[in-house]
Amino acid sequence: MSFVIYRSIHLVVTTLALQDTISSDLRSRARSALLLERLGSSNQECEVDDTAGPCPPSKFRSPTSECNNVNHRHWGSRGDVFMRMVAPDYADGKSSPRTSVGSHALPSPDHIIQQLQKSINKDAQHPHITAMLPAWGQLLAYDLFQVISPQSSSYKCCEEKTKSSEDLIQCYVRTGDDCKEYMRSIPSRDFQTCEFNYREQMNAASGFIDGSGLYGVTEKEFQALRTFSGGQVDIKACARCNEAGAIGALHVILLKEHNRIAEELAKLNNDWSDATLFLEARRALTAEIQHITFNEFLPIVLGQQTVTKDELR
Q1: What is the pTM of this model?
Q2: Residue 261 vs residues 47, 227, 230, 232, 286: alpha-carbon distances, Å
Q3: How many CB atoms are closer than 10 A to CB 255?
Q4: Per-residue tens of pLDDT for the chain, all 313 residues
Q5: How far is CA 130 from CA 101, 136, 297, 304, in A?
Q6: What 3-state class would DSSP assign to 127?
Q7: Among residues 73, 59, 30, which one has the least CA distance to residue 189?
């Protein structure tokens, strides 16, 4: 089989496999990253994005966070790569899952969790920290990152089905009676270059504290939350408001705060449209979330000295 024919077949397989597993706005970036990983810098399908210039300044953030940085429109936006604090440690230096120093498979995540849980004293109580601290941390997690996997119903890792797309799906499991379905996360790439050094992971959320965990990170999610009346949001349309425990309650409280702000703004600005009221209320609530994070949450988690030294507030 010639290289041209192989590349064409692989392109079709990649496109079809992604069709029902990833949102349309991320499909092109994921497809390009997968092909670049498979074929390397020789991939003729790879294109450098040299047309996206600086963005015009805007008072309001976009749902995807594109153009939050007016000079680098894609930095931190939905679909961008995660920034690394340390270099990856792939088994082959490129993309193969990490192994132990003896080239043996690492312990499963379930085994590690079980070992860690054995050291937890369930009866221990902190003198002043409540369940709201981890709930706020979960809120930030929803806001800052989202990892997605190709959850294709036609492929079962444990059953080793659909061999034709095995190189695309990339299972992350050990077969056996206790096998669990784990597929590797969707990769992404820097659209400013066609060089491939190692696999990069895609962030399907925005990398900014911008309330995207509440309002959504796509235009569709953004609009689905609105009532289109007085800048208000429909709390019933919030899926995470139904989560059990403090995290669900926290989403409800914050969206009610949005509606309160929108109502107050409407009283002060009779000429503002519904869209303006919504965006201004979102802007104010985002500022509240940022203020609580940097002035109340981080000092508890990192300590007052670290927060002060690193100028985090």
Answers
A1: 0.80
A2: 45, 15, 11, 9, 12
A3: 23
A4: 343 333 333 333 333 344 445 677 888 888 888 888 888 776 666 777 765 667 888 899 999 999 988 888 888 999 999 988 898 988 888 888 788 877 777 887 778 888 888 888 878 888 888 888 999 999 999 999 998 876 655 667 777 654 444 444 567 666 667 777 777 888 888 877 888 889 999 999 999 999 999 999 999 999 999 999 999 999 999 989 998 889 999 999 999 999 999 999 999 999 999 999 999 999 999 999 999 999 999 999 888 888 888 777 7
A5: 40, 11, 12, 18
A6: coil
A7: 30
Cα angle, residue 109 at apex, residues 98 and 29 outer, rounded to 5°: 60
Closest CA to 214 of 173, 182, 261, 179: 261
75: number of Cβ within 10 Å: 15
For residue 183, what are the β-bridge partners? 171
